[in-house]
Amino acid sequence: MKIIIGTYNQAKMNAVKDVFSEAEVIGADVDSKVDSQPRTDEETLAGAINRAKASRMQIEDGYGIGLEGGVMLIGDQLHLCNWGALVTPDHQLFVASGARIPLPDSIAELVMNGRELGDVMKEWTKLKDIRHHQGAIGIFTNEWVSRKEMFIHVVKLLAGQLAYYAKSE
Ligand SMILES: O=P(O)(O)OP(=O)(O)OP(=O)(O)OC[C@H]1O[C@@H](n2cnc3c(O)ncnc32)[C@H](O)[C@@H]1O
Ligand SMILES: [Mg+2]
Question: Which of 111, 117, 145 to mutate to test the pocket of ligand 1 (most atoms within 8 A of CB)?
């Protein structure tokens, strides 16, 4: 089984490798066709789907996966949000969402004013590779849930749906 994942982000790549441990997982530079910082649930989902479809197109007979992190307002509180998408060799699409937690007001304000969360987190924590490791979710859960662990859950939701629908066909 070959999987193209539309990113070189280490947290995302390692999550896919952990869940699909038998597969060959290959990173690719694809266009998410959304803002580099998605700001709604719909935009974040669209980014994941676009990455998955573009990844699927990079290989003749393989799977495409897209994972996208974003932010969304619930009322006036900004939250982290995350989505994943998987496209099969015969172009079936599966999607799954990940964890959501509120962002502190000081961080939320900077992101609402146009900054990218990854850049804000890098400056605020002085950790230059934070987006590849614990991520914002790791920082604001006191490292109980890392970005990789959060994406593992999303990828398991994709793999599980793939298995369920393959069985019922
Ligand atoms: O190379 P790509 O795959 O784009 O990796 P990325 O780190 O930029 O990841 P996304 O585009 O999916 O994420 C959108 C922004 O949110 C940032 N971010 C950091 N930690 C996050 C977390 O735990 N959850 C969601 N987004 C996070 C991320 O760094 C980006 O600035
Ligand atoms: Mg990005």
Answer: 117
CA distance 60 to 37: 30
Take residue 14 and report the two structure tokens written for it: 């390692």
ipTM of the complex: 0.90
Centre of ligand 1 to C-alpha 110, Å, is 15
Q: Is 117 in the pocket of ligand 1 (CB under 6 A)?
A: yes
Centre of ligand 2 to C-alpha 52, Å, is: 14
Local confidence pLDDT in tens for the 169 residues of the chain: 999 999 999 999 999 999 999 999 999 999 999 999 999 999 999 999 999 999 999 999 999 999 999 999 999 999 999 999 999 999 999 999 999 999 999 999 999 999 999 999 999 999 989 889 999 999 999 999 999 999 999 999 999 999 999 887 7
Q: Is the CB of 68 under 6 A from ligand 1?
A: yes
Closest alpha carbon to 10 in 96, 138, 113: 138
Q: Are the beta carbons of 70 and 95 closer than 8 angstroms?
A: no
